[in-house]
Amino acid sequence: MTKVLILNGPNLNLLGRREPDIYGSTTLDQLNEHLAQSAPEAMTLDFFQSNHEGEMVERIQSLMDQPIDGIVMNPAAWTHTSVAIRDAIAAIDTPLVEVHISNVHRREPFRHQSYFSDLAIAVIAGCGLKGYEFALQTLHHHLKDQ
Ligand code: DQA
After folding, report:
1. Which of 40, 91, 116, 144 is most buried, with most CB under 10 Å away?
2. Residue 4: DSSP 8-state
């Protein structure tokens, strides 16, 4: 069994209610349930969302003692701001796929910069919630080929 952690950053607890024209009408619970049901063969998922930067840093740090096989992360606004979360990801040796629901490159210039993309094995943006499924498939293939 491969173990994958799905991390979601600030305001993604509001999925379904927040700017639905950009982020859609599906809630985070519905998304997580769907991902758990449709995960690639032999992959188990764990989920964590936080609006608190330090909490996210500590969840990532905990992977040093309890290693897992891969991370799918939508860092949300922290994508463009957080050296602290970037450093936590860099400190652990776990393959990362970065996901954005929207195409950040079609949006405001401040969303074009990511502190995570150069650490990630892949970056998926603009595919809506399907991007999380694509990220799991990407990790599945990456781990199989190792
Ligand atoms: C986001 C894009 C970010 O710029 C934004 O701050 C988010 C969500 C996305 O999924 O498209 O909160 O990461």
Report:
1. 116
2. E
Distance of CA 67 to the CA centre of its chain: 17
Catalytic residues, which ones? Answer: 23, 100
CA torsion angle 45 48 53 57 (round to 10): -40
Which contiguous run of DSSP H or E holds residue 125?
strand 122-125
How close is the Cα of 103 to the center of ligand 1, in Å?
9
What does the pLDDT look like over 1-17, one tens digit per residue?
A: 999 999 999 999 999 99
Show the DSSP H helices in the chain as ranges: 20-23, 28-38, 53-61, 83-91, 130-144
pLDDT beyond 90 at 83: yes
**Quick check: CB of 140 below 6 Å from ligand 1?**
no
